[in-house]
Amino acid sequence: MKTLLRVMGLVTAVVVIVGLVLPPEFSVRREVLIDAEPERIHPYLSDLGLWPLWNPFQKSDVAVTLGQPSAGLGASQQWQDPSGGGRLTLTQSDPGAGIAYDLYFGTSPERYQADFSYHPRGRLTKVVWTMNGTMSMPILGPYLALAADVMIGESFQLGLEQLKRVVEQQYIEENGRP
Predict the structure, then answer these.
(1) CA-to-CA distance for 123 and 19, rounded, in angstroms?
(2) Residue 142 is part of which domain span?
(3) pLDDT per residue over 122-173, tens digit each?
């Protein structure tokens, strides 16, 4: 029994020490190539009313309330979901460069910064979705930061692929096959 307690104490000490040493900062980044110019992609990102068309985080159990304005610089939204909800505000909206937004979860004052940037490649545009932040919870936060890419990255990729489908399908509907 004493050996078990010593091992558990040692494991706990290692977890705490590593949690104190790991960096609390994280970054998640995913990208997709879309057959469209940035100006055709931009409305789907700068208008929060269009986010349900592609956003994997807006599921049926999420109640979203759009702010005024709902598009362009200063656009905002709040949401409620089983995990508590949050809010975001667009801090940049440029049809040639992309959008940026501040993101808050629950009632936490912690701000996470995210953006979509456009990188033209001839007829195609590489769209990059990035999120950065700091998990400031003592000991546990750095472990969450370490896992952020795994926890969020797949949803980012899913959203980008859905954005690609929506934008490219809209072009086909308006102009026929490219």
Answers:
(1) 46
(2) 24-175
(3) 989 999 999 998 877 776 766 676 778 888 999 999 999 999 999 999 877 7
Rounded Cα distance between 89 and 128, Å, is 19
**What is the β-pairing status of strands 86-94 and 76-80?**
antiparallel
Q: What is the CATH number of the domain that holds 35?
A: 3.30.530.20
For residue 111, being part of any structural domain is answered with yes
What is residue 93's DSSP assignment? E
Phi, psi of 86 (to 5 degrees): 170, -165
Q: Give the helix, strand, coil percentages of the chain, each rounded to 5.
A: 40, 35, 25
Q: What is the number of H-type helices and E-type strands within the chain?
A: 3, 7
Read off the amino acid at residue 163.
Answer: L
C-alpha closest to that of 131 among 22, 26, 23, 41: 26
